[in-house]
Design brief:
The chain is of the alpha/beta class. The protein has eight helices and eleven strands.
């Protein structure tokens, strides 16, 4: 699983790590656990060697967020993809290529969260193979605009899958999110839904999108949020609001790369 860790000083020599860690623990005991506003410049975005939520063990993440939040296993390949996508020097061509690779990994793991049922088939040799198939119909829903970057990854895995769209806008003054457009398959209420949204900073946009899906008859437990980057605050917001909704993300980090959509589509 991938997590990031804020650090007050990322340039200390390695041999001083023990003293620095002890000093940091003393400062945390003195100041308590109160969170302070942080910017990307003041954070060390190291992944995956340190944790953002306590020790970030599987047990602690389970206790903090519940069993519905799952993190993509953070092997060296995933760590490299996360690094490339956060690097300001990554070209637009490389950014899109590696973003598509990460999207594919997240989509495939999201598909693992769908319900399956037993299915026996006859092979060309006449043998019976005991396999699996999806329990019911599936569809994707992307939150416009950045969520559309994940559509091709879903189509590459599921041929001819139906994909709906939701457009959520935030008020410039109040920052309140509201849905201005939604289009779904007519029978979406009877389907399993993969809700696609790559960057989740506050969780407000996802809350509005899930509310619209529920209004169209989709049970909360039938929604899987496929996400690339999620902040701990956003994860808590969504989990608390919809405890039966499943979330699959590649990273929990306090600073989300909000440049994702612009760089992916516009190269900015």
């Amino acid at each position: 699983m991938c997590t990031g860790s804020p650090s007050s000083n990322g340039t200390q020599p390695e041999e001083e790590g023990g003293a620095a860690e002890q000093q940091q623990q003393q400062q945390q005991q003195h100041h308590g656990q109160q969170e302070q506003p942080q910017t990307e410049q003041s954070l060390s975005l190291r992944t995956p060697t340190h944790a953002i939520v306590g020790a970030a063990t599987a047990e602690e993440i389970l206790e903090e967020y519940g069993s519905t939040l799952k993190l993509l296993e953070c092997n060296s390949q995933v760590a490299e993809l996360l690094t490339i996508l956060r690097d300001k020097n990554t070209t637009r061509s490389d950014f899109k290529f590696y973003a598509d690779r990460l999207i594919r990994l997240v989509i495939e793991e999201s598909l693992n969260q769908l319900p399956y049922t037993d299915c026996d088939v006859e092979t060309p040799t006449g043998a019976i193979y005991e396999g699996l198939k999806y329990r019911s119909g599936n569809c994707g829903v992307s939150i416009i605009r950045s969520g559309e970057a994940m559509e091709q990854g879903l189509r590459d895995c599921c041929r001819s899958i139906r994909i709906g769209k939701i457009l959520v806008e935030s008020d410039a003054n109040t920052h309140e999110a509201r849905v201005v457009y939604a289009r779904f398959p007519d029978d979406i209420g009877s389907r399993q839904v993969l809700l696609m949204y790559p960057i989740m900073s506050t969780g407000n946009t996802v809350l509005q999108a899930v509310n619209v899906l529920r209004e169209h008859g989709v049970p909360e437990k039938c929604i899987i949020l496929s996400n690339l980057f999620c902040t701990p605050a956003a994860a808590r917001t969504v989990v608390n609001a919809f405890p039966k909704l499943k979330i699959l993300t590649s990273e929990l980090h306090p600073v989300a790369p909000n440049h994702f959509g612009q760089k992916y589509f516009d190269g900015i």
